[in-house]
Amino acid sequence: MNDVCRYIDDHGKESVEELFDLVRMPSVSARRQAIQETAEHLAEKLQDLGFETRIMPKRGTGQPVLYAEAPGDSERTILVYNHYDVQPDEPLDEWETEPFEPTRRDGRIYGRGICDDKGNVMARIAALRAIKETRGSLPSRIKFLIEGDEEIGSPFFEEFVDDNRDLLKADACLWEGSGVDPEGRPLLPLGVKGLLYVELSCRTVARDVHSSYATVVPNPAWRLTWALSTMKDEDENILIDGFYDDVRDTTDAEADAIDRMPAEEEAFAKSLELERFVLGVKGKDFRKRLYLAPSCNIDGLTAGYQGPGSKTISPGRASAKLDFRLVPDQDPHDIERKLRRHLEKHGFEDIQVETFGAEHPARTSLDKEWVAIVRDTLSSVYGKETVVVPTMAGTGPMYPVVKMLGVPTADTGVGYIDSRIHAPNENIREEDFMMGIKAAAAVFDAFGRWKG
Amino acid sequence: MNDVCRYIDDHGKESVEELFDLVRMPSVSARRQAIQETAEHLAEKLQDLGFETRIMPKRGTGQPVLYAEAPGDSERTILVYNHYDVQPDEPLDEWETEPFEPTRRDGRIYGRGICDDKGNVMARIAALRAIKETRGSLPSRIKFLIEGDEEIGSPFFEEFVDDNRDLLKADACLWEGSGVDPEGRPLLPLGVKGLLYVELSCRTVARDVHSSYATVVPNPAWRLTWALSTMKDEDENILIDGFYDDVRDTTDAEADAIDRMPAEEEAFAKSLELERFVLGVKGKDFRKRLYLAPSCNIDGLTAGYQGPGSKTISPGRASAKLDFRLVPDQDPHDIERKLRRHLEKHGFEDIQVETFGAEHPARTSLDKEWVAIVRDTLSSVYGKETVVVPTMAGTGPMYPVVKMLGVPTADTGVGYIDSRIHAPNENIREEDFMMGIKAAAAVFDAFGRWKG
Fold this sequence. Notes:
The first copy, chain A, contains 14 helices and 19 strands.
């Protein structure tokens, strides 16, 4: 791999420029912004590497998937999952530089989506270019599946995979992108949490009312407050009947892996200017909650007057955006039904539930051979022990790949603890990006040599 | 008064145009917008009637008061309280016409502040013009006190009155403006509720965080939800320790007046498209809650992502705007202390309290002679029995006048049940405006003849 690594080092500047071009495209899926042109831009990049590309529609409201395929030395196939869409850039006033104008500062490069997920897709493309330019061919058959609406919960992705089972057939999968831990050790996550994203809303009256009527006119912000307070208590117990029923017991191998993961909470707390995590958790307990516990989170609250100073009204409408992170074997559709039953049972029939996203949790078992191959490859590239992570805290549409296609899935990437994904000032370190390209090249190479 | 009424009828068009000119001035006190020019505009109007005017600063952050005084036939003095500022115009998309471009439609005239309080101040000016043009003089000494920040809780008004006790000395006061009930009977309110307006806010971390960390990072929207739910229960009981301690018992005269007030809740419910008021109250119980009960209202909620679709974050900050309407003898400063103690006692030291406004409740006793004079005058002008209202549901800075100056205070005006004050599409009926001018003229005239 020395020749490939030299090529990567010699072309670092172009790789970063190529990443910047992609980050400049404001592909916010929540606003359906710049979707088609971003897919086409990436398709051209892959065509240059000899891939055949197709921009494929999803069913329903789904945004187009970029599919690309190229043959290689091994007839075995690796499926590469990424996404070209990004989170919204709000709150704008907390960005130090423009979200869609990538900027270099102190060894870091900033921009919306530069870590999640554009840095990862560009690292993989740069890796394959280095291999192809150096050796003349790719190590194996490679299939890229690059989604356009991962950040809004990958609607209709299950249906897409179901509709294209033959096309997507593969022997292993490389997932969208992880990173390194605070010690610089490569992280190898093997699973994702599921997600249920809903908006609860309540309209009590046709319009805002002068607050002198607050004694008699029902206030939807109070209704919402009371409803939410029945759903989770101050000790973080989620109170929806049956919420925890399908949570699978942790295996010994998972518990052992969690135990061996490095402490990460101090650096993270520092970056958040936070003194104490929820319930005061630290060390193993922090990691157990972070990786293995399901959650019920308020993403946003909206009601009435939010401007400067005071305005005395009882609002007509109030709403809350909520997400539930789910762990195996919780089913988002089942949790949605339980949530509706909960609201009904507590007398909140006036609260409407609208579902914006539902994804199943998924994990690749720690005993798969593919896991060992990626683990050893990463340890060798980074010169440090790989940290195997039984599941990420985050969500991705891994379930259709792991469960429906039956493909073992592992994850490597360009992020680090302070990458601020989904938040203002999202960034990666330039050195992590370069290492990410080399790691991707080594993993593609190892897959090509795997006879499994 | 026939000559005066004829003059009023003959000059109706000019009076409405003059009101429109005032409504076009966007004097939103919460934004300190168009304050000085609106005060000057009104000062010119009063100078034309022979008033000496002064635009007087308040202490601290207070916005200027327009004071105007003119002598008349009687040496006794009536104080007229109004305000020239208005509520913010948001939510803009619910207005059918521009808030600051007054519009006629089906006998109604629309615009922000057209009822609260610009229609009332212009009705009084039109009334005095009619008297002066018809008779050559005003009926008594008249002092106008027109505030510029009533809609943000009249900051420093108590201090202003205290600093100007001699200047403001009077024998009776005409308050800012009431209206007619659904049967067209004139309403005569004699008191106001107090107000405490606060913003509760919580910042747990320095920035928004990806919601996959929701299991470990404290969420300020949950903290706020839990804190609010300790403050009022679903049966509308306010749970702050000692909140009800100083609520004075209702007198027999007040209870009798409330009993005799007309049912108003059906028309109001219809205008709100509402089926059931809080706790299902109707009739006398509705009026008892509306006029005599204190409240704890959520005016607004803000946290995290509020745009379209989904964004998966745990927000860094959450806030709620709240107002408490208070009844005699609750003290807003005492309630603020009790609120802070409540939050502390329930473990919510992480919730900040910022106070935006504090006003005392006040009532003029039903047995004052001035009450009888205004009541009888209104009955005669409207040809219908006057409805005496022991207190309004709303708030105004009546306490310094009633308590500090010791002046009996009564209220007449141009509004009606669907005037939508503080809400989109604020409006008055043109006929109510004309009747309001005549009623104001008759009240000024009756005051001039009162020997009391």
